[in-house]
């Protein structure tokens, strides 16, 4: 199939030099972001072979369309874990939000991933916004879905801001996987609340990223189910036995670390105060800085910002940490979060210190492997406890493994898959 970049509605290649991975703000139409994930190349064929989807359920596998505000090649998190598993059973397309490009007419870039998933990225001429941009995006995707022969797909939404295709494609199932209360995030468009209401009215199933969020959404949907953060235990358990990352070895100990997106959910005041109280401790803040001014981050000799690292590199960094931190601010954007990093830190064998996030308290407050603290002094005290933990102790590791016993992504995916089959 020919895929010229500028033909409206075409399944296009990327053109030389186009890159994308993560965008530095949610919601807004952005220029092509940089930092393509290793292994992703422009697509060379559109239709996966029939034998690439292992359909062992006895029911014909439906096509699967996932609409997300999160770039596939950015932080490896819930969408990647779940979609990789669904792609073993379905022809799966991951539809990202549009990017602005130097093109005359709207088009579509298609990318291969390191699994069988295809990424569909609408491209819009620079300066196109609002209703015009949404209409163009919808037209481009409409044509792509026709060209791909997609009928009665499973539609999976991570954002209500994506175009709604449930009726246009006669969807077999519509799922809204609500990871966060997006309307509380910085930069959220004012129409998001109404768009979410419309999506929930059309959805057959609503999943939430935690129990606090489920308690809200279940009042608005009769078939809502909580699915708190899960963990790839074998991946992160590598940190218990592998050498630490070489580019961390120059930082002295003890090391107290955080990885993830550093944004409005991060309590920079708490980090600054704790680092001032314990100048002999080293604080390693690993991850991209988004939606906040990097100049506002605390700068002390014992605070380190190594930048973003890939998912595969995280166990080696965790191997060199004495304590894993979750210094989240208590504000609207963290009210309903269920941090994925909690079970990931624990799988690595690290003791965890967190601010009082509701779902962390609910799931881990009495576990004996996580401490909760709400002031700088209390945070220091909790970190002192964590530094006293023998990470290699069989009793300590057994306590962690008991805590994580039913939290694998395979179990979460299997339960979700079962619910989908019930409504198909």
TrEMBL record:
Source superkingdom: Bacteria
Keyword Transferase included in the entry's annotation: yes
Record carries keyword Transferase: yes
Record keywords, A-Z: Plasmid, Transferase
GO molecular function term, any single one: transferase activity
Name of the protein described by the UniProt record: Glycosyl transferase, group 1
Organism the protein comes from: Azospirillum lipoferum (strain 4B)
């Amino acid at each position: 199939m020919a895929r010229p970049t500028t033909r409206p509605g075409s399944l296009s290649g990327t053109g030389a030099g186009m890159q994308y991975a993560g965008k530095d703000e949610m919601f807004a139409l952005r220029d092509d972001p940089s930092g393509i994930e290793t292994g992703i190349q422009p697509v060379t064929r559109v239709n996966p072979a029939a034998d690439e989807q292992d359909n062992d359920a006895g029911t014909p596998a439906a096509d699967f369309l996932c609409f997300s505000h999160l770039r596939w090649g950015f932080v490896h998190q819930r969408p990647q874990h779940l979609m990789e598993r669904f792609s073993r059973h379905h022809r799966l397309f991951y539809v990202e939000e549009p990017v602005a490009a130097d093109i005359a007419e709207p088009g579509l870039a298609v990318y291969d991933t390191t699994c069988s998933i295809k990424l569909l990225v609408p491209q819009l001429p620079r300066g196109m916004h609002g209703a015009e941009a949404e209409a163009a995006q919808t037209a481009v995707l409409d044509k792509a879905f026709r060209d791909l022969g997609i009928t009665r797909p499973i539609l999976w939404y991570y954002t209500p801001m994506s175009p709604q295709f449930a009726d246009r494609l006669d969807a077999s199932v519509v799922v809204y996987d609500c990871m966060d209360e997006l309307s509380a995030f910085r930069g959220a468009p004012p129409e998001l609340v109404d768009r979410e209401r419309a999506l929930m009215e059309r959805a057959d199933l609503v999943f939430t990223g935690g129990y606090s969020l489920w308690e809200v959404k279940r009042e608005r949907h009769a078939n809502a189910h909580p699915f708190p953060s899960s963990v790839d235990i074998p991946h992160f358990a590598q940190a218990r036995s592998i050498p630490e990352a070489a580019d961390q070895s120059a930082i002295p100990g003890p090391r107290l670390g955080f990885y993830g997106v550093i944004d409005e959910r991060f309590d920079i005041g708490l980090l600054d105060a704790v680092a001032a109280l314990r100048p002999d401790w080293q604080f390693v803040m690993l991850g991209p800085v988004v939606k906040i001014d990097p100049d506002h981050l605390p700068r002390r000799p014992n605070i380190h910002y190594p930048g973003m690292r890939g998912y595969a590199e995280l166990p080696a960094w965790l191997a060199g940490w004495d304590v894993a931190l979750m210094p989240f601010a208590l504000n609207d954007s963290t009210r309903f979060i269920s941090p994925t990093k909690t079970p990931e830190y624990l799988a690595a064998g690290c003791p965890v210190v967190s601010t009082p996030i509701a779902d962390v308290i609910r799931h881990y407050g009495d576990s004996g492997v996580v401490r909760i603290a709400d002031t700088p002094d209390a945070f220091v005290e909790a970190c002192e406890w964590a530094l006293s933990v023998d990470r290699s102790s069989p009793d300590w590791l057994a306590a962690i493994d008991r805590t994580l016993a039913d939290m694998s992504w395979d179990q979460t995916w299997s339960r979700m898959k079962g619910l989908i089959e019930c409504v198909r």
